[in-house]
Structures are given as C-alpha cells and as structure tokens.
C-alpha cells in the first residue's frame, strides 16, 4: 500500500460508483479515484490522464463495457482493466479474457474489491 | 347396528393419539413414504436428512446410502446445476424455486416408469424447492419432485398432432387454391346446379354471365335445359334465345348482356352426385368467334352457289340457243354433201367434208355442254344405287352401240351399292369406261372395273391398258375443254372428264387418276359412305 | 409522497440490475443460448391506472407472482402481454410447433423464468441491504390487465393505497427482443421501510 495509484470508475449508476469508491478508499486511503458515467466521458478523461486501474461496468447506455475495454486496452497496455457485471455469462467472460480484461462479479463487496486489488498489486 | 346417540363422547375418544410420543413421527414418516412424489430434505449444511420411499424406488438408492451426503455427492452431475443453485439460494436467502421440466430436462438422474422407458432416458420432473424454517435447526430446504413424464409425452404428442394438422391444412389449402386458380382461369363459364334449381356460378366468367351484370334470362334458360327439374315451375325461354334445335345434341343459346352485347354460347351439361343429391355442371362456352366463321362460310357458300347457277344458266342458255342455228347449218351442209358429193371437183368435196365434220363436232360439244350444265341443274334425289346393275346397263349400252369388242370390259368381284343419283352415276362410269376404251388399242383395249372399301368410303376403280397420261397433266385433265391430243387422234369434246368431276363432286366424292405414259391409266371414284350434310341435292 | 433522492433511486436501480444480470446468466446457461436482461427504467406510481400496462386494459396478460414478507412486504410479479409470453417461452424452449395458448408445461417454464428473475431481484436487495426476505412459491395468472391486481375495495377505502414500483424489463434473445414488466406492489409503509434501509445502507457504506 506504499504506492499511490490512480483509478477510473466507469458506471452509469452513481450508486455503484459511490459503493466501489467507498470500498477502495477505505482500504487504500490516498488513492486518487475519478469517475465517469459513460464511455464517451471516460474516453475524454483518459485524454489528459493515464490510470493504473480502469473499472468498467458492462451494461451502460451507448458503448458497453466490453467495447470500451477494447479501446482502452490498446491505449493502456500496462493498466489493469476490469469488467464489472452481474451477468456472468460464459460468452461475455470469454470475450473479456480474450481482450485481456479482468472480470469482477457484481455486486461489489469490500472484501472482493480489496482482494482483487491486492492480487493485482502483488503481480505488478 | 346404530349406536345410541346419547354416548358420543366416549366413542369419539381417539384410539390414535397424535400427541402421544412417537405416534406423530411414525405417522408422518409413513405419510412421507406413501406419497406419490419424491420428498427430500436438506440440512443447513446441504446434506440430505430425508429421502422418502419414492426417491429410493426411482433413484435406486436406499436412504442409508444417501443420508448425510450432499446432493452433488450423490449425483455429481448436479454440481453447479440449476438444482444446486436453487438449493443454495433457498438455504442462504430463503428463496423458493420452481424447476420446470421444459427448462431443465431430467434435472435429477431418476429413471422413468417402465412404460416410458422406450421414449425417455430419464423421468421428466417438476421440482419445487422450499425453505423450511425450524425453531431449533435454522432453515432447512425441501425438494418436492413430481413425475411429469406422462404430461411431457402428451405434450409431445399434442405438438406432433398439431404439426400434422397444420401440414394437412396447408396441403389442402394449397390444393384448394390450385383448383380455384384453374377454375378461375378457365375461359369457359362454369356453374353448378343442384336438383332444387339453385344455380351457383363457380368462376368469374360464370359470374359475369349470370351475375348481376349478366343476363337475367340465362339462369332460366339453364333451368329449362336441365333434366329432372320437374318440381320447379319453368317458363320456356323466348325462342330467339335458343340457337339450335334441342334434338341435335349441341345446345347453343344466346345471352344478352346488360351492355347490350349478344353472346352465343354453347352449353354442355354433365352431372355428379354428392350428399345424395344430383348436381349438374354447366359449362358455357362463348362461341361468338365460331359463329362469325360459320356466317362467313355461309355467305361465301351462297355467293358461290349464286355465281355457279348463273354460270350454269348461261351455259344452258348458250348451248340451247346455239343448237337451233347449228341444226340448220348441219342439215344444209349434210344436204349439200348428199346432193353434190362427187359432182363438183375434188377440192369442193374436201371442203364439204370439213364442213360436215365441223358441224358434227360442234353438235357433240353443245350436247356435252348441256349435259354438264344439267348435272347441277337437274340433279335427282339420292337413292341406293347397286353398281353391279349400273355396270350391266353400261356394258349393254356399249354392246348395242357396237363400240366395244366382246369381253373387253372386265368386272372383278362384287361392286358395292352406293347412295346417289342413278342416271348421273351411269353417265359418270359410262364416260370413264368409254375414255378407257377410246385411248386404247382398239383390238387389245381392255377396261377393268374393281372396288375397294375404306372405313368411310367406297372406291371404284376404272383401269385401262391404254396410252396413259403424263403425271404433269393429272390435275388439268378434269378441267373443261382440256384435251391432251389433237382432234384427229382421238374422238371427244374435252368435256367428258369435266362432267365426271362435277358428278363426283355433287356426290361428295373425289375423282382422281394414277397413270404414266404407256402404262395405262386408273381412274378412282371415291364416294363417301355417309353423305355430308352440305352435299344435299337442294344445295347444288 | 414517494420522495426518493436521485441517489436512492439509483441505488434501487443498481440492486435490481445486479439481480436481473444474475437471472440472465442463469437463464442463458439453462437454455444454452445468450440471454441479456436489462432494466432500462424504474418508475414509481401510486395507481395502477398510471402504468403503461393499464393503457390496454382488456389485453390479456400472463403474470408470475410471488409475495414477499420481511422488513418490507408486498407482491412481486413478472408481467407480459400473453403473446409476448408465448414468444418468450418458445424462444427459450426452441419449440417447433407453437400452439396458440401456453400449454401446462410452457406455463410452468414461464413460472420458472419468473421465479428466477423475481428471486434475483428480491435476493439482490435482501443481500445488499442485509435484511432477510421471505418469499412465497410463484403462482401463475392469466387475465385482462385491468384486473391484474387484486385490489381490495375495502383496503382502498381504508386509504392504504398500494404503491407500485415498475421495472420495464427487456429480454434480448438471439432472434428477438421481448419487453415485459416487473411490478413490485407494496403498501406505503413498506416503501418507506425500503427507502429507510437504502438510506441506512448508503450511510454505512459511504461513511
């Protein structure tokens, strides 16, 4: 937890962003967490700043999380990009894996978020 | 025996007391085991704590083999499956679940009853997962499993039959559409009439003719034409609407459309029986075209007849009126010949001879022309004519005239009897025989007469062994005044064969010749066995 | 009357979406074809006559209903116009010969679909809010949409009007999309309790 990281949360649900943000900051207090409510806003934000973690909701109006993840993967080969969804269909999981995206099942819980980040940090 | 009603209390004391220890458990266990459904209870730790008799029978696993084990240890395939997830939700969140046979085929590996074994590998199951809240043990989970294999089988059967029915409907619809299309696109109007007098147009053409814009009289005409409709009052149609005599078999009627057009129709009627009733199919064919052609032909025929008869009139008049002055010339030249022959010089004798010869030839030509014109003008009605008798008369005539040697007219076999005008037929064959003899060597000339029948006609052949006719002239020899030879070579006016042709024509027959130069000629008279209607005596 | 803040509304939406996402993945595994489920909007109305379903009052609808009881109670139901329900079941079952009404087996399949979705929604709420909910077995009903809810006249007179939370759900299947509704019928006390739980949860989570 020595390293300070930057995180971008992309989710159309404000509640979901709040929840995830709360879970992360309670364990990683000084991390910088930005939010975007859809893909186009997210793409705008990554123009000026690069992030270590990009957490994307799957179901969003406009571009979905998979499509956005594909674009971001190309720009940020070293970042952790994860797809958050309650829909744990094999097909979507497989697509995410093929694009080099991580997969996080909704609903997010504090333990789930913490374990996920710790595992990612350890492998860096 | 009826018990006295005064002591019900004592009798009502239950002999089986559910409150007594052990009794309730015994009863419930027995009830669970006699149930016709599978009953499984799972403890909060997911292990089986009840497995009823039904489950034992259908799974083949005794209770003591499964108690204390988790479902996925008993049936490994159910791990991660719908049943396991439902059990998890039930135990964790108290959620009940419906597990339907359609969405989960054979959710648990249970055997079907023997009667279904042929078509089902597994029992079809409808499962309910219930949370059971207990005071002492927390939330348990119950599985209630019903065997719905029969229902699934019925459902399959129902769908199969529905599919077959749908297919049947499609097929019959298709064939009906086809029949309708054929009917609609038929040029003829088709109607069906039942014996109660109801007439129904079957296609658009029929609708046109018999519908509201058609001819209101037409239905009445059809009813009039139908047999067996005597229990319906029918007024005979106006006579001008029936174009043909009903006796002839061809029925033609006239329809008048609202637009004022008159359409001649040929009516054909056939019948069929259905629903124990007689129905008639009436076909109406528009024969306007045919009628127009018939009229055209009739007009042409009338025109031809008129010009023919004018010609005959002219020929008769000419030949008749020429006879009188000719007879005078002829008489006087013969008188000069008798008086002055040998009394003047040789040149005068020669001139007189030419004059006599010329008048005689002219006499014969005029006679023949008269004969020719009479063939048309003075024809007699047709009667049966035995050709054997006819040729007897011809031979007798030749004998009397001494114009033919004995035995040079040969008849083979029996000749038929034909329909015709006896005197004209005599003239016809006498001319042909005479021709045959004329163009033959007078000593060895021989004419052979024989016949051959075809199915529809009599053929009478007159064959000679004479000089023959070049094929290029076969067409023209039947024309009037056509002679192939000079006057000196063979006697004749050039009208004989024209007369023969005209007589044959009048009898509806064909006169033809087969011949080659030096090989003799065969004339063939072909007369029809049935006389065509147009060749009646009055039309010629 | 139903004064939910935007965040509270959004929270309920997200909980429901998590639920239907789960339901979609269970369904797609069961029918071995991709099934997507989304809830594009959630609305709260006080009268059934304000719902979209009430616009065609004589349309026959199929409904799978489960009652629930806990800190908040009421009835949850998945509702489709009958034709849509036929379409849905037949797409899921890949039935070759469609009949013009649901057969018993198809009806049970629809019940299971409803059960999965309703359980997922209720389970998601219950799970996240940390409050257990008791659910009944699903039941099936088919009737005209105007008589979908058994509203007791006496209750109406007593002023305990139900509040409807209406989810417009969209099934996206391989060949077609099918629209239906999930209705949560609760009394005013229950909806207040739901809001209270959401507030408490937000306060706890976000510190």
From TrEMBL, chain A:
The modification 4-aspartylphosphate is found at residue 57. One of its GO terms (biological process) is phosphorelay signal transduction system. It comes from the Bacteria. Residues 6-121 form the Response regulatory domain. Keywords: Phosphoprotein. The keyword Phosphoprotein applies. InterPro entries: CheY-like_superfamily (IPR011006), Sig_transdc_resp-reg_receiver (IPR001789), ST_Response_Regulator (IPR052048). Transmembrane segments: none annotated. This is Response regulator.
UniProtKB/TrEMBL annotation, chain B:
SUPFAM superfamilies: ATPase domain of HSP90 chaperone/DNA topoisomerase II/histidine kinase, Homodimeric domain of signal transducing histidine kinase, PYP-like sensor domain (PAS domain). Residues 317-531 form the Histidine kinase domain. Its EC number is 2.7.13.3. PROSITE patterns: HIS_KIN, PAS. It is an enzyme of class 2 (transferase). Keywords: Kinase, Phosphoprotein, Transferase. One of its GO terms (biological process) is regulation of DNA-templated transcription. It comes from the Bacteria. GO terms for molecular function: phosphorelay sensor kinase activity. It catalyses: ATP + protein L-histidine = ADP + protein N-phospho-L-histidine. Residues 24-94, 175-211 form the PAS domain. This is histidine kinase. It comes from Thalassospira povalilytica. The lineage of its organism: Bacteria, Pseudomonadati, Pseudomonadota, Alphaproteobacteria, Rhodospirillales.
TrEMBL record, chain C:
It comes from Thalassospira povalilytica. It comes from the Bacteria. Residues 8-42 form the CheC-like protein domain. PANTHER family: PROTEIN PHOSPHATASE CHEZ. This is Chemotaxis protein CheC. One of its GO terms (molecular function) is hydrolase activity. The keyword Hydrolase applies. Pfam families: CheC (PF04509). Keywords: Chemotaxis, Hydrolase. GO terms for biological process: chemotaxis. InterPro entries: CheC, CheC-like_sf, CheZ_family_phosphatases.
């Amino acid at each position: 937890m020595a390293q300070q990281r930057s995180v971008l949360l992309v989710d159309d649900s404000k509640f979901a962003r709040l929840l995830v943000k709360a879970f992360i900051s309670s364990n990683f207090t000084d991390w910088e967490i930005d939010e975007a409510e859809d893909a186009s806003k997210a793409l705008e934000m990554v123009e000026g700043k690069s992030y270590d973690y990009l957490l994307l909701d799957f179901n969003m109006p406009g571009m979905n999380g998979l499509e956005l993840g594909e674009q971001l993967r190309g720009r940020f080969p070293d970042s952790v990009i994860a797809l958050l969804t309650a829909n744990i269909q094999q097909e979507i999981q497989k697509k995410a894996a093929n694009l080099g995206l991580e997969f996080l099942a909704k609903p997010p819980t504090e333990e789930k978020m913490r374990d996920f980040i710790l595992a990612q940090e350890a492998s860096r | 025996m009826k018990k006295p009603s005064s002591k019900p209390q004592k009798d009502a004391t239950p002999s089986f007391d559910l409150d007594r220890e052990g009794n309730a458990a015994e009863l419930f266990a027995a009830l669970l085991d006699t149930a016709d459904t599978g009953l499984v209870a799972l403890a909060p730790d997911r292990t089986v704590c009840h497995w009823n008799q039904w489950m034992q029978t259908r799974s083949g696993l005794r209770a003591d083999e499964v108690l204390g084990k988790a479902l996925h240890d008993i049936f490994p395939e159910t791990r991660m499956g719908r049943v396991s997830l439902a059990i998890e939700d039930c135990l964790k969140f108290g959620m009940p679940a419906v597990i339907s046979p359609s969405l989960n085929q054979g959710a648990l590996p249970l055997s079907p009853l023997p009667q279904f074994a042929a078509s089902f590998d597994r029992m079809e199951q409808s499962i309910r997962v219930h949370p059971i809240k207990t005071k002492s043990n927390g939330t348990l989970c119950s599985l209630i499993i019903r065997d719905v294999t029969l229902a699934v089988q019925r459902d399959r059967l129902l769908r199969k039959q529905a599919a077959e029915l749908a297919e049947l409907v499609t097929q019959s619809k298709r064939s009906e559409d086809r029949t309708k299309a054929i009917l609609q696109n038929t040029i003829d109007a088709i109607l069906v009439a039942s014996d109660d007098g109801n007439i129904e147009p079957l296609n658009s053409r029929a609708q046109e003719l018999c519908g509201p814009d058609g001819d209101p009289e037409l239905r009445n005409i059809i009813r009039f034409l139908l047999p067996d409709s005597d229990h319906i009052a029918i007024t005979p149609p106006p006579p001008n609407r029936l174009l043909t005599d009903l006796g002839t078999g061809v029925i033609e009627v006239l329809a008048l459309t609202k637009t004022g057009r008159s359409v001649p129709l040929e009516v054909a009627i056939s019948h069929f029986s259905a629903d124990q009733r007689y129905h008639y199919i009436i076909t109406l064919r528009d024969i306007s075209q045919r009628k127009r052609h018939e009229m055209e032909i009739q007009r042409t025929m009338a025109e031809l007849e008129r010009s023919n008869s004018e010609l005959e009139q002219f020929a008769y008049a000419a030949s008749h009126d020429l006879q009188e002055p000719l007879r005078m010339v002829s008489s006087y030249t013969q008188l000069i010949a008798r008086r002055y022959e040998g009394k003047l010089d040789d040149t005068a004798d020669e001139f007189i001879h030419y004059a006599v010869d010329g008048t005689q030839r002219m006499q014969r030509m005029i006679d023949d022309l008269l004969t020719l014109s009479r063939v048309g003008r003075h024809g007699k009605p047709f009667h049966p004519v035995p050709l054997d008798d006819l040729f007897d008369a011809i031979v007798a005539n030749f004998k009397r005239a001494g114009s033919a040697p004995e035995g040079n007219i040969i008849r083979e076999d029996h000749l038929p009897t034909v329909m015709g005008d006896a005197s004209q037929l005599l003239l016809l064959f006498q001319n042909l025989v005479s021709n045959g003899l004329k163009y033959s060597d007078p000593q060895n000339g021989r004419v052979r007469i024989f016949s051959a029948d075809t199915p529809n006609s009599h053929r009478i052949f007159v064959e000679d062994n004479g000089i023959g006719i070049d094929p290029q002239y076969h067409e023209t020899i039947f024309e009037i005044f056509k002679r192939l030879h000079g006057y000196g070579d063979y006697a004749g006016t050039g009208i004989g064969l024209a007369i023969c042709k005209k007589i044959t024509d009048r009898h509806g027959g064909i006169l033809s010749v087969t011949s080659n130069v030096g090989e003799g000629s065969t004339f063939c008279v072909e007369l029809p066995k049935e006389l065509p209607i147009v060749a009646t005596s009055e039309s010629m | 009357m139903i004064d939910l803040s935007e965040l509270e509304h959004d929270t309920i939406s997200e909980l429901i979406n998590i639920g239907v996402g789960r339901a979609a993945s269970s369904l797609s595994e069961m029918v071995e074809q991709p099934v997507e489920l989304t809830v594009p909007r959630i609305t709260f109305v006080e009268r059934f006559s304000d719902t979209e379903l009430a616009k065609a009052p004589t349309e026959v609808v199929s409904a799978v209903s489960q009652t629930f009881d806990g800190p908040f109670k009421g009835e949850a139901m998945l509702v489709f116009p009958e034709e849509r329900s036929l379409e849905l079941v037949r797409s899921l079952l890949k039935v070759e010969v469609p009949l013009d009404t649901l057969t018993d087996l198809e009806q049970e399949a629809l019940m299971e679909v409803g059960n999965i979705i309703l359980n997922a929604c209720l389970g998601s709420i219950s799970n996240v809010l940390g409050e257990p909910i008791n659910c009944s077995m699903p039941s099936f009903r088919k009737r005209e949409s105007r008589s979908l809810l058994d509203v007791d006249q006496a209750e109406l007179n007593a002023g305990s009007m139900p509040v409807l939370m209406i989810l417009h759900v969209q099934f996206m299947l391989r060949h077609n999309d099918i629209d239906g509704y999930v209705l949560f019928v609760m009394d005013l006390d229950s909806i207040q309790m739901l809001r209270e739980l959401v507030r408490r949860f937000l306060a706890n989570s976000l510190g």
